[in-house]
Amino acid sequence: MTATDTHQAIHAIWRIEQAKLIAGLARFTGDVGMAEELAQDALVAALETWPKNGVPEKPGAWLITIAKRRAVDHFRRARMRDRKHEDIGRDLQADELAIPDFDAALDNDIDDDLLRLIFTACHPVLSREAQVALTLRLLGGLTTDEIARAFLVAEPTIAQRIVRAKRTLIEARVPFEVPHGDDRSGRLLAVLGVIYLIFNEGYSATSGADWIRPQLCEEALRLGRILAGLASGEPEVHGLVALLEIQSSRFAARTGPTGDPILLLDQDRSRWDQLLIRRGLAALARAEMTAAPPGPYTLQAAIAACHARARKAEDTDWKQIAALYRVLAQVSPSPVVELNRAVAVGMAFGPAAGLEIADALVGEVTLKNYHLLPSVRGDLLVKLGRHAEACAEFERAALLTRNERERALLRERAAACAS
């Protein structure tokens, strides 16, 4: 194996093992920041050693062994002044001596450790921006630069968010644990919200020159699948995964050759990924198996499934979609849900019915700078033949959006109305 091949192998192994490694170390040290540093030390050791000696048979075991030894050294150098560190250092040393097969030890607890890490990274003591950055860093394995580029934020800003998030977790004495009871349900919603936010930013970028950022969607879907494996009894986890699988199936059809957006009704559905659709429908079935009323992610997945099952745009069951949005508005009321309901009602019962719902949202403060409100109103006005009003709405939407591709599309629609 050449040095290049070895480095590629190390990168692939690190991608697979990083989250498990950090999760296992965080359980031993009780400090997510320290766990990441120890994992990085193990990676550096691999980069120095493996090109010369070859990739070990059990690379995950090798990495955890090195990292745990570094942890022991760290606590020894600190002279174990802090009693807690003394206990942890002694436990680590005893664990190292008593369990030579660290790979087996890691596998025994890895599911619990990963679940702990997910809940810790999305702890409510952190801001949503910090939760997203820390989740992508610790569980997604993205570098600070990759996260910054994905969200079009300066790299030092992302670095500061991550550093502050780790410090906040330590200062707040956040336990490295899976919450229980009512606290677990609330915290799980926060975790799902973070994954959903990451996916949405990739699916329809809020700013920049690209309409979609597949890397973020891939990371969100990967995290969702991991969570579904760890919390298989939670229907909303399967609901979210179902939604992400089905939405991801459209990627090849969502943009043209030059990256221009292609709207849902204009997409070539033969390019939709049928494997992802089948996976999504299977996840939706798992979510719907529970006797409990469906949650917001399961309802959104059911809406996405209506689109996925329609081989042609004109086959879409818009009345069913409108009914699902009505239920979603009751389960998780928000102006954005109402705006989406306006679209569905407009398709199912005519543009005038949809416009009535959209018009009622014009004074909504939270939608004041939301470009999709004038965009939806413009679309409905076009269908009613009110082209001058539609043109003004599309122009307003173009001014509000920060995404260059979307702005160009909206201006094209405005120009079409004007002509």
Automatic annotation (TrEMBL):
<dbReference type="GO" id="GO:0003677">
    <property type="term" value="F:DNA binding"/>
</dbReference>
<dbReference type="Pfam" id="PF04542">
    <property type="entry name" value="Sigma70_r2"/>
</dbReference>
<keyword id="KW-0731">Sigma factor</keyword>
<keyword id="KW-0805">Transcription regulation</keyword>
<dbReference type="Pfam" id="PF08281">
    <property type="entry name" value="Sigma70_r4_2"/>
</dbReference>
<protein>
    <recommendedName>
        <fullName>RNA polymerase sigma factor</fullName>
    </recommendedName>
</protein>
<dbReference type="GO" id="GO:0016987">
    <property type="term" value="F:sigma factor activity"/>
</dbReference>
<dbReference type="InterPro" id="IPR000838">
    <property type="entry name" value="RNA_pol_sigma70_ECF_CS"/>
</dbReference>
<dbReference type="InterPro" id="IPR036388">
    <property type="entry name" value="WH-like_DNA-bd_sf"/>
</dbReference>
<dbReference type="InterPro" id="IPR013324">
    <property type="entry name" value="RNA_pol_sigma_r3/r4-like"/>
</dbReference>
<comment type="similarity">
    <text>Belongs to the sigma-70 factor family. ECF subfamily.</text>
</comment>
<dbReference type="GO" id="GO:0006352">
    <property type="term" value="P:DNA-templated transcription initiation"/>
</dbReference>
<dbReference type="InterPro" id="IPR007627">
    <property type="entry name" value="RNA_pol_sigma70_r2"/>
</dbReference>
<dbReference type="InterPro" id="IPR046531">
    <property type="entry name" value="DUF6596"/>
</dbReference>
<dbReference type="InterPro" id="IPR013325">
    <property type="entry name" value="RNA_pol_sigma_r2"/>
</dbReference>
<keyword id="KW-0804">Transcription</keyword>
<dbReference type="Pfam" id="PF20239">
    <property type="entry name" value="DUF6596"/>
</dbReference>
<dbReference type="InterPro" id="IPR014284">
    <property type="entry name" value="RNA_pol_sigma-70_dom"/>
</dbReference>
<dbReference type="InterPro" id="IPR013249">
    <property type="entry name" value="RNA_pol_sigma70_r4_t2"/>
</dbReference>
<keyword id="KW-0238">DNA-binding</keyword>
